[in-house]
Amino acid sequence: MINYCSKVLQELDDKILDLEIELTSPIQLAETAVTLVLDYLRDVKEFVLKRSFENAEEEIYFFKKLKPSILSKLIYYNSVYKIEMKKPYGGDRIIKTYLNQELTKLKRFFDNNLEFYKYYRTNSTYLDNLYFVRGKFDIKLSLDTYYFESDQNFSTTHDYKVAKIIAYDLIQVYLEDQLFNIKKYSPTKDKAINKSNLNWTASKSALIELIYALHSQAVFENGNTDIKSIAKAFERAFNVDLGDIYHTFLELRNRKTNRTKFIDALLDGLIKKMDEQE
């Protein structure tokens, strides 16, 4: 059961990463990703309902870790779709106000669920038998209405809340990155940027992988430069818009295999070239 679900999650992560590389429109990406996640979630639900968990520990692990990891992607991309569709037309000030309002909504969620947020983020387990085992609920545990409307054969009282925490963390990164881009591409700054003749033609995820590798080795300003500044310099140097670098890095980090695919390819290619020229 766990092996199957973990394999499905890895496969879904890989497909979403491919979509993020291929689709530049956030609305088109979100719409496609939602459909994809729904298909995977449907398959996992069918598999789980046909088979029983071996024990309570396996059930808790599924509803605390695996299902929220999939469901959070649905919440995230659906939220991104709504954010982009509702984004107002106008100048930077109007859009910044809108994005900050969305951030305030996220803060309100975390404030309203602070007790459970602390429980989950500290990897606590003493209430797992109540939170992540089916058929157990206590109205005093601040249950979402979603729980009562959901299929309780495939839901516990708090698996959806975990999924929202994961998704909202990513949405916060998305919104903050949007605000940073407004500042980065302001007209006064654009005038000072000299266009480069070099164009990055590999995947965006490959460049992001390289940027994070360089940042980890503190090669710029003795490690005193933040990742956004490095990414901005690479975007200017190679005429590329890297988009949400934090989210792409999270997807790379969550890969079970080939997390450093581009770096590994660089190493192999360099060694091969050295060997050929000996």
From TrEMBL:
Q: What's a Pfam family in this record?
A: RteC
**What is the protein name for this chain?**
RteC domain-containing protein
Could you tell me which species this protein originates from? Flavobacterium ginsenosidimutans
